[in-house]
Design brief:
single chain, 684 residues, alpha+beta, seven-stranded mixed beta sheet, 14 helices, vWFA_dom_sf
Length: 684
């Protein structure tokens, strides 16, 4: 296992944090998050405090400071470990914040020697991009719990005396959280929502482009805290130019202005109505033991594997005729439903449906690398673009290795990923989707899995914008250097961010610079791993850029040393654990039951006897299918994302039957159900 949240002692006795305070500053699509953690050494001996801090995968840490008693130190980015070790061994108070070798969304916080009875305050700032949701909202998540990461056999965590997370009942978490947010946007702010109680939104100007909001008083840190931001005119492109850092050398990244371009287009309806019937759909499902965890703590809660199972049933019934598919379950080992992908038909679908119903979380640990290697070793099918759907609670310890593999094979497929539960690694879930030109979704709180998964299926079936080029209209004396990889694909409902450095005379806040630096550092880190340490170029560039921008990397850390009298503190160094709450997740089951590719639990024999029209010669399956369509369009439009592909298949099937009395069937359905659904609305 890799390090998890906490401070530990040799007796493994929990010591709660006193409080956590968070301030958030949002600028359009990015946010700066400032956190302060208060705790105390109540032991009679010095304590080596180690706190592992979960961060969003796309975050860039930009400030770290700590205060012990009356002494405060502010850290700077340096090449890691040596200076920290030298300071600690000489008795100086030292602080180290470094990125985990296994996962970018885990940062290890080594506070060093904390004297007996002393209080400590640790402050950490980071900047992050906000993820776009299916309803156009922007999601900011503060992770309250880091699920125990499984370390695959043979993988060296390098963590030595690693700390294990202590899971406690949600109401027992012995520290509190306060959170306030300041939101500003080029477009008016429509509303701010949360899975936790909020104080009323307070607008700061008449244009409603600035506002503040806070968590309601008395909140306990007992779940992931989400903020959902909604702007008007969300599909308008925006650009934010950030001025250079005054103290930085012109020509360097921090010494030049940086622009962030946000693209979130809305495509014409006639374009988006066209669906492909081709594709190889591979559903890769986590069947590790952790998938048995309940979706929420209440009675009658489904476990995660059951939620995934119900979603797979809906997906299988929604695939287009003519495609190919397979389902791969993974844990410590992996299993495929079929030896290779099979053509989608009534027979293969029925066979897969039965296997899905029998699927359990019985494959041990979470080792995703081997099933991915197996998939990539299989040749792609001609004229069947490969689409990979990954379902997992994100509890893996070798995230970077997985992302490198996905990137290497990115040209052969797209990947749509789904993080299940309140601790799914954002680095893993977002990373695989980003590397393979797909889309990431997170299912937490009261989220239902089906609409999010069906949105991704729509992305996979609908056309995407490719061959994208960006032309920069800037003055002749200004040059543009891209910091981001080129944008290769954009889907309906998916946003793309592009960072670029502006060199020259530009008349124009540091969040954009640091996110741009983070983007470039990530690309260089992958390059260094691909070189396998044979060349020093990429590593040296990462260290130079990291130190210059104040953004930590795999080779650097925030290091701060209080240079006192140099006397070593007396007593044995101890470690303590901070307990974290259990997952809280609520899942609602899709209310319709399906027994074949398109059949609903509607008693059509009763319906036929209730409608006195000339339908006695109409095929009962045609009548039942028309009636089901009328019912869906009449009463279930709010769930259209979930059943739209079923409806499309049903319409195609009805048209293939060449029934002359379809209009009479629609009229009869309206009479029976009390609806006014038009035939054209159904697509008939």
């Amino acid at each position: 296992m890799v390090n998890c949240c906490g401070l530990v002692t040799v007796k493994n006795e929990p010591v709660p944090l006193k409080s956590i305070a968070v301030e958030v500053s949002v600028q359009g699509h990015v946010a700066t998050v400032s956190s302060t953690l208060q705790y105390e050494n109540q032991e009679q001996s010095p304590l080596e405090a180690i706190f592992v801090f979960p961060l969003p995968g796309e975050a860039a840490v930009c400030r770290f400071s700590a205060k012990i008693g009356q002494t405060e130190v502010v850290a700077e980015v340096q090449e890691k470990q040596k200076q920290y070790d030298d300071a600690l061994s000489s008795g100086q108070q030292a602080f180290l914040l470094e990125e985990s070798d296994e996962s970018p969304d885990v940062f290890k916080l080594s506070v060093g020697s904390l004297p007996p009875g002393e209080k400590a305050s640790v402050s950490l700032d980071y900047v992050t991009e906000l993820a776009v949701q299916a309803d156009d909202g922007l999601r900011l998540c503060l992770p309250a719990v880091l699920n125990p990461r499984y370390q695959p056999q043979g993988s060296d965590s390098g963590s030595g005396g690693s700390a294990q997370v202590s899971s406690v009942p949600a109401g027992s978490v012995p520290y509190s959280l306060s959170l306030s947010a300041h939101v500003s946007s080029p477009h008016p702010i429509s509303r701010v929502e949360s899975n936790c109680p909020l104080d009323p939104l307070n607008y700061l100007n008449t244009e409603k482009t600035q506002a503040t909001v806070s968590l309601a008083a008395g909140h306990q840190f007992d779940r992931d805290v989400e903020l959902l931001l909604y702007y008007q005119d969300t599909h308008q492109p925006t650009a934010i130019v950030e001025a250079a850092q005054a103290s930085a050398k012109p020509g360097s990244l921090m010494g030049d202005p940086v622009v962030m371009l946000s693209l979130y287009p809305e495509f014409p309806k006639d374009v988006m109505s066209s669906m492909t019937s081709h594709g190889e759909f591979l559903f890769v499902v986590d069947r590790s033991g952790s998938m048995e965890c309940p979706m929420h703590l209440g009675s009658g809660s489904l476990d995660r594997i059951s939620s995934a199972r119900e979603t797979l049933l809906l997906l299988l019934k929604s695939l287009p005729m003519g495609c190919y598919f397979n389902i791969i379950g993974f844990g410590s080992s992996y299993e495929s439903f079929f030896p290779k992908s099979v053509e989608y038909s009534q027979k293969t679908m029925d066979e897969a449906l039965q296997k899905v119903k029998e699927m359990r979380a019985d494959l041990g640990g979470t080792e995703i690398l081997q099933p991915l290697k197996h998939i990539y070793s299989q040749p792609c099918l001609p004229d069947q673009p490969r689409q990979l759907f990954l379902f997992t609670d994100g509890e893996v310890g070798n995230t970077k290795e997985v992302l490198d593999l996905v990137k290497t094979n990115a040209g052969s497929h797209r990947c749509f990923s789904f993080g299940i539960g309140e601790g799914a690694s954002t680095a893993l879930i977002s990373g695989v989707a980003k590397q393979a030109r797909g889309h990431a979704q997170f299912i937490t709180g009261q989220d239902r899995m089906q609409p999010k998964v069906m949105q991704s299926l729509r992305f996979a079936l609908q056309p995407a914008v490719v061959d994208i080029s960006v032309k920069w209209n800037v003055p002749k004396e200004v040059s543009v250097t891209l910091l981001s990889p080129p944008i290769r694909v954009v889907f309906q409902g998916q946003r793309a961010l592009l960072y670029a450095q502006l060199t020259g005379e530009v008349r124009t806040l540091m969040a954009v610079h640091r996110l741009g630096a983070r983007t470039l550092i990530q690309s260089l880190e992958v390059e260094e791993r691909e070189q396998d340490g044979e060349k020093e170029g990429a590593k040296e560039k990462v260290i130079e850029l990291s130190v210059q921008s104040g953004v930590s990397s795999a080779f650097t850390a925030f290091i701060a040393v209080h240079k006192g009298d140099g006397e070593a503190l007396q007593g044995q160094l101890l470690r303590r654990h901070v307990p974290t709450p259990s997952d809280v997740l609520i899942f609602c089951l899709f209310p319709l039951s399906f027994s074949s590719s398109f059949s609903f639990s509607i008693p059509y024999s009763l319906c036929l006897s209730s409608v006195c029209l000339s339908l006695s010669k109409v095929d009962q399956e045609v009548w039942a299918t028309v009636l089901a369509l009328v019912w869906l369009y009449g009463f279930k439009m709010e769930a259209q994302e979930e059943w739209q592909f079923l409806a499309m298949k049903a319409v195609s099937w009805i048209q293939a039957q060449k029934v002359a009395s379809v209009s009479e069937c629609v009229q009869a359905g309206n009479t029976l159900l009390g609806c006014q659904v038009q035939k054209d609305t159904l697509g008939l």
